[in-house]
């Protein structure tokens, strides 16, 4: 494996998200290159402050479509368009989130998705024959493929091949050239000695006669003659390669020119590279995201400045079908990418990069990592005050507590988000909590007070619906040595957990204030969950009812009931995506229609199990594997407007369905060992659900 592989993967993915966040506010057409300069001058930082940055298609695609490698049955062979097409269908909510739903024949991704839904296989789904060259050659060919470059360090050919295979689900022609070029550049950045080497490697993976090759060479020629004039280079692009010459909403060729321009004129400086990509206008977040990945890998972590890194805070949110996966911890995800990289070359993964996806385990492995830890009061508390870690070995989180008297500050992990946590609703993110009642929290801390008296440390959680702060117990801790804080997350009585951490509390008068450091070397949430979902304590937002991610249908909160109205198949999902053995129950009240189901071990829209009323006086257990199939079915009398207690237990290969406390059906299947739970239907109708309970089981 290449040297510092994990660090460079982390820096590359971080760089991609920095570029996206920098470019997103100035992406709309009103923001021309001239207007950006008139308004902001020479960009040297984010132009907009967000409460939290909402989801973006430029992140959704690279994360969710790479999951094709997790879901396919064959391993050790190159990824195929069919593999990635299945990920499109499995992780995308119809007309919600993921990508731009701009209309069939207008939005390339919308068009390709509908083709797949109608049974047109990949790569025909994205071909120019099927969709025309205008649709096939929009910018999406290169904006959803960064992760394929990250898993092939130093192997641009494999990166280009995988990237093109993934892009061919939706794109063709120059769109595929863009995928090949960007992926090859990312792969080469792991070992390259110069930006020229990176660009030349990318060009070697596409035909010389292609427009993509020609626009990059045109930029290179201008740069060689005018190395200090990136604006002049952009004006050349406007004149010779501009939007007026390439039809569609956002063609790849003009933006390919901007990517090449930013790489050349950025000349190996991370900040300058993403800033130039944004100052040119056009598709700012896409272009800055692509070159941010390349520059992040090439420059490494130490060259990404704190002003860009700190607001990211090691976390992004997504808008795919799993609310649990939609809360993404960047250091942990970088380990997932690295695991694919090691697997691609047949090497054993390093122990420190191994993860258990069913639990949270933050180790602050690299300098400056925060794992989305936060402070409630920045007057008293600062995370990593120097912009990197304070340990001599570079590991761990540092929290400065400064001048605290009779007051407090919460140090916490943000485990759930609501609408009030965002400035906008970009790409409709939806969430399921990352932590639950019944789980065990373990923190490894060290405290050094520089002046003043010893402050109290009190573990706590905060609920989402009522915003209650539930304190656990006072911690009697030693100073200047490591100690562990452990506690079980208490029963939240149907509410969700949105914060978990500890409170730092003082009790002295101002003249006796305390200053010092708290170091965190470990933050872990482990063990089996045992919780309820009280619909009365939930909220309607982002087009759904918390904490569900919905795919079709109309889902509303009606008092204590989750009301579900649909005219076609539709489902809602929640819970830990990696939950294995568990028991889930709910009261189910059919109001209209003949199909009323609960789902278990759902891996997305196309994978999992379901059980419930399958027709008039019928009860069934289903398997969903790109289509629902009955595993077991029996007669069972049921009536409209009556309420039934459904309970489904999944343990090992067994699926057991009980109604009103009596086991009615059992089935065995080994296809899916973990997944979300939820509700849904395969046909029209109305249903109410309530009293939802989940209990994790020992395997």
From TrEMBL:
Pfam families: ADP_ribosyl_GH (PF03747). Gene3D superfamilies: ADP-ribosylation/Crystallin J1, Exo-inulinase, domain 1. It comes from the Bacteria. Keywords: Hydrolase. GO terms for molecular function: hydrolase activity. Signal peptide: none annotated. The keyword Lipid metabolism does not apply. This is ADP-ribosylglycohydrolase. It comes from Lacrimispora xylanisolvens.
């Amino acid at each position: 494996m290449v040297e510092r592989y994990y660090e460079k993967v982390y820096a590359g993915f971080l760089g991609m998200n920095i570029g996206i966040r920098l470019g997103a506010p100035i992406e709309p057409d009103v923001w021309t290159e001239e207007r950006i300069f008139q308004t902001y001058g020479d960009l040297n930082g984010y132009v907009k402050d967000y409460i939290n940055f909402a989801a973006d298609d430029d992140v959704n695609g690279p994360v969710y479509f790479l999951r094709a490698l997790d879901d396919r049955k064959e391993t050790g062979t190159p990824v195929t368009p069919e593999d990635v097409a299945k990920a499109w269908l499995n992780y995308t909510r119809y007309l919600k989130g993921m990508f731009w739903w701009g209309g069939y024949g207008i939005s390339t991704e919308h068009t390709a998705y509908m083709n797949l839904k109608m049974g047109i296989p990949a790569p025909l789904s994205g071909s120019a024959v099927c969709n025309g060259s205008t649709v096939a050659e929009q910018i999406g060919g290169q904006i959803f493929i960064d992760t394929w470059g990250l898993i092939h360090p130093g192997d641009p050919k494999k990166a280009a091949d995988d990237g093109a295979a993934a892009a061919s689900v939706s794109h063709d022609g120059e769109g595929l050239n863009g995928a090949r070029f960007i992926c090859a550049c990312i792969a080469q950045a792991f070992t390259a000695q110069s930006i020229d080497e990176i660009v030349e490697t990318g060009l070697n993976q596409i035909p010389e006669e292609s427009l993509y090759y020609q626009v990059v060479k045109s930029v290179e020629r201008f740069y060689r003659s005018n190395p200090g004039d990136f604006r002049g280079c952009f004006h050349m692009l406007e004149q010779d390669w501009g939007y007026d010459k390439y039809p569609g909403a956002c063609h790849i060729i003009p933006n390919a020119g901007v990517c090449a321009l930013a790489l050349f004129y950025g000349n190996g400086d991370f900040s300058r590279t993403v800033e130039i990509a944004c100052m040119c206008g056009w598709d700012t977040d896409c272009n800055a995201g692509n070159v941010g990945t390349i520059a992040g890998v090439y420059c490494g972590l130490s060259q990404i400045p704190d002003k860009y890194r700190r607001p990211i805070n090691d976390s992004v949110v997504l808008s795919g079908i799993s609310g649990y996966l939609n809360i993404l911890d960047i250091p942990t995800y970088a380990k997932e990418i690295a695991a694919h990289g090691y697997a691609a070359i047949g090497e054993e993964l390093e122990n420190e990069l191994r993860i258990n996806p069913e639990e949270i385990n933050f180790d602050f492995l690299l300098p400056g990592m925060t794992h989305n830890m936060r402070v409630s009061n920045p007057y008293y508390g600062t995370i990593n005050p120097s912009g990197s870690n304070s340990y001599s070995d570079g590991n761990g989180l540092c929290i400065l507590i400064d001048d605290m008297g009779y007051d407090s500050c919460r140090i916490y992990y943000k485990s759930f988000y609501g609408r009030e946590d965002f400035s906008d609703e970009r790409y409709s993110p939806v969430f399921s909590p990352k932590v639950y009642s019944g789980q065990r929290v373990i923190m490894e801390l060290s405290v050094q007070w520089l002046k003043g008296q010893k402050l109290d440390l009190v573990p706590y959680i905060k609920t989402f619906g009522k915003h209650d702060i539930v304190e656990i117990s006072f911690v009697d801790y030693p100073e200047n040595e490591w100690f562990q804080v452990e506690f079980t997350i208490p029963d939240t009585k149907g509410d969700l957990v949105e914060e978990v951490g500890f409170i730092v509390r003082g009790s002295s008068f101002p003249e006796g204030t305390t200053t010092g450091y708290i170091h965190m070397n470990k933050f872990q949430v482990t063990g089996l969950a045992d919780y309820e979902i009280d619909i009365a304590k939930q909220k309607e937002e982002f087009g759904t009812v918390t904490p569900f991610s919905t795919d079709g249908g109309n889902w509303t909160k009606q008092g204590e009931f989750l009301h579900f109205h649909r005219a076609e198949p539709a489902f809602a999902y929640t819970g830990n995506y990696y939950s294995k053995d568990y028991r889930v129950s709910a009261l189910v009240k059919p109001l209209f229609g003949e199909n009323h189901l609960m789902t278990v071990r759902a891996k997305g829209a196309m994978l999992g199990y379901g059980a419930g009323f399958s027709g008039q006086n019928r009860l069934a257990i289903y398997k969903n594997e790109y289509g629902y199939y009955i595993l077991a079915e029996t007669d069972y009398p049921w009536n409209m407007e009556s309420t039934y207690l459904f309970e489904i237990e999944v343990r090992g290969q067994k699926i057991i369905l009980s109604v009103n406390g009596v086991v009615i059906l059992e089935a065995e299947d080994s296809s899916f060992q973990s997944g979300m739970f939820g509700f849904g239907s395969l046909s029209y109708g109305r249903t109410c659900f309530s009293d939802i309970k989940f209990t994790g089981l020992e395997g």
